[in-house]
Amino acid sequence: QTGAFLRFVSTSGGALNKNDVSSSASVTFEFDGQDASMLSSVDATITFIDNDDSDGVQQSFGPIALGSISKSEFTTSSFGLPEASFSYTLAEALAAGGLTASEITGGDRFILSFTVTLTDGRSFGPGSANGNVAAIGGFYSSPYAYTSLVVCPPQPGVWTIEMVDTYGDGWQTATGGGGPGITFALNDGTVFEVSLCSAYGPRPGCTDDYYSGTATVTIPVGTSSMVATFPGDYYGEIEFRITSPTGNVLADYATGSAAGPIDLDFCNDSFN
């Protein structure tokens, strides 16, 4: 049957920051497929998909009512069609399901869904539309739903790296000589390197004391990803600790640690 659909004009908030409950998602849509006089209201629901099985607790919920838009709240789009926007914050989505930010993690999903109701009582929502209408990015683009992924970017601010060489001759990492230090690679292409200087070879930007030292890197606001890498402990003498701007220790490596990415749990790095 033919019916009404909500053509998605724009969307934002495909990623919700677990560490910022004010982060939000929004959809702007046009009502089409029926005469504008047939529009009654649009109801929004939220569904949570818990993709983390490590805690042994399944916390998925929904769909749960999140709000409604009446016909009077619509404006007129540039195409002469009824247009409206709906948004929600992570805090509102969590409250709807009775969860806290500590109970979600990266990879979980929130699905904002819409059901449009006509004055004759008919309603259309997820599952109502055929492929041409439901296709995201098509002209009609009416999937009636928008999915946002929970992400955990690094906290912006000053990160502190405390470094030790138990032998006292500085760091010898991958090559046994000067070698690279710990690198922090950001999504914008910026790379920071920190280390203790070495008695056996030059190392740019290192900390002079061969026994211990502290370095900092400043992560700018808006950074979406950061990968920290340790090149390896060549002589089994290197120790280091990484503390985020929140004051939480996210890495505490003992001597002999293997080379590779450093496990930094951004998702559980909140201010105390």
How would you describe this protein?
This protein has 272 residues and is mainly β. Helix content is 4%, strand content 42%. It has helices at residues 90-97, 131-134; strands spanning 5-12, 15-17, 24-32, 39-49, 61-70, 75-76, 82-89, 109-118, 123-124, 145-151, 157-165, 182-186, 191-194, 212-219, 226-230, 238-243, 249-253, 260-261. The longest helix has 8 residues, at 90-97. The radius of gyration is 25 Å and the shape is elongated. The N and C termini lie far apart (55 Å). The relative contact order is 0.16. The model has no long low-confidence stretch (mean pLDDT 90).
Give me a quick take on this structure:
The protein is mostly beta strands and 272 residues long.
Topology:
Elements: E1 5-12, E2 15-17, E3 24-32, E4 39-49, E5 61-70, E6 75-76, E7 82-89, H1 90-97, E8 109-118, E9 123-124, H2 131-134, E10 145-151, E11 157-165, E12 182-186, E13 191-194, E14 212-219, E15 226-230, E16 238-243, E17 249-253, E18 260-261
Parallel strand pairs: 2-10
Antiparallel strand pairs: 1-3, 3-7, 4-5, 4-8, 6-7, 8-9, 8-10, 11-14, 11-16, 12-13, 12-15, 15-18, 16-17
Count the DSSP helices.
2
Shape, principal axes of CA atoms? elongated
Order of helices and strands: EEEEEEEHEEHEEEEEEEEE
Largest sheet: 6 strands, mixed
Classify the secondary structure makeup into a structural class. mainly beta
Q: Rg from C-alpha positions?
A: 25 Å
State the oligomer.
Answer: single chain
The beta-strand count equals 18
Helix content: under 10%
Attribute tags:
4-stranded antiparallel beta sheet, 272 residues, elongated, 6-stranded mixed beta sheet, 18 strands, mainly beta, single chain
